Amino acid sequence: MRLVAALHDLALAFLTGGLAGVFVAVNVLFSRAPSREIAGQIGHAIFDRIGPASLALAAILLGARIALHRAERPGGARLAALALALVAAAACAVAALYLTPRMSAIWSGGAHAGDGAGLAGDDRARFLAMHIAANLTYLAAMISGAALLALRAIRRG
User: Fold this and answer.
1) What are the residue boundaries of the structural domains of the chain, listed by start?
2) Under a CB-based contact definition with an 8 Å cutoff, are residues 15 and 54 in contact?
3) If you ran DSSP here, which 8-state letter would residue 96 be given?
4) Measuring CA to CA, which residue among 37, 55, 35 is closest to residue 118?
5) Count of alpha carbons within 13 angstroms of residue 114, beta-carbon side
6) Mind listing the pLDDT tens digit of every residue in the chain (157 residues)?
7) Any idea what DSSP says for residue 11?
8) Please, which residues bridge with residue 119 across strands?
9) Predicted model pTM
10) Phi-psi region for residue 110, left (φ > 0), alpha (ψ -120 to 50) or beta?
């Protein structure tokens, strides 16, 4: 069970810390890039990689959490830990399997403004709606991970 606990904690740390790092990096990217078009191209490449990576880490986390759940004594903290891992996995699945592919299709096939402002017209509105949803799902995964980290620390304390 120690190996499973170590795998759980590594996946949790990489998922939560990785998503936090991406939020900071993308914020800096969009504030410093010479245009929204360039920032969007870079952001597009980042999120095409973050989706599968976060989903893999969330799946490892959930699998390890299920194994640990069975080995731990019953209680509210055990159930909360499982619920948090499920939320993180579901959020990453929605972002990676539904939102990101649709955003990529809009970005690749959509009309881009000639002035470097990124997408234009209806494509921009559709993309922004998906973008907000993706941000919220990744934020849910990151917050669930942070809560799970705190719960693990409190339980060990």
Assistant:
1) 2-156
2) yes
3) I
4) 37
5) 0
6) 899 999 999 999 999 999 999 999 999 998 999 988 888 889 888 988 999 999 999 999 999 999 999 988 888 899 999 999 999 999 999 999 999 999 999 988 888 888 877 888 899 899 999 999 999 999 999 999 999 999 988 888 6
7) H
8) 112
9) 0.90
10) beta
